[in-house]
Amino acid sequence: AEDTGVRVELAEEDHGRKSTIALRLWVEDPKKLKGKPKDNGAIEFTFDLEKETPEDVAQEMVESGFFHESDVKIVGKSIRDRVALIQWRRSRIR
Amino acid sequence: SLNAQVVHSAGRRFIVSPVPESRLREP
Asked: In this predicted complex, what is the ipTM?
């Protein structure tokens, strides 16, 4: 996945059975963001692989004050890249 | 303060926890 400066990883082991998965997102390179991220803590959240889109979560993160509106695309893309990898791995398992 | 929780109006919970130092300075 392209280095967006925003890192997204699994926050739990993925056994491929549940449609929701816990992810953790944090800023590795603040210089790549237009806005100034609030703090560099890791943000943990659950994501529904079937019902939700990465852009939904990115927008909610902006609305919750974690990121500036101008960074919603970078955050969405970072989540999308990780979710794509999870779904690819799951398809390989099946 | 870290380990804070923010619940978005749509109901999603965001839990903020410290990033392990080692992960912050990854190349």
From this structure: 0.87
Which residues of B sit within 8 Å Cβ distance of A? 2, 4, 6, 8-10, 12-19, 23-24, 26
Q: 3-class secondary structure for chain A?
A: CCCCCEEEEECCCCCCCCCEEEEEEEECCHHHCCCCCCCCCEEEEEEECCCCCHHHHHHHHHHCCCCCHHHHHHHHHHHHHHHHHHHHHHHHHC
pLDDT tens digits for A56-93? Answer: 999 999 999 999 999 999 999 999 999 999 999 999 98
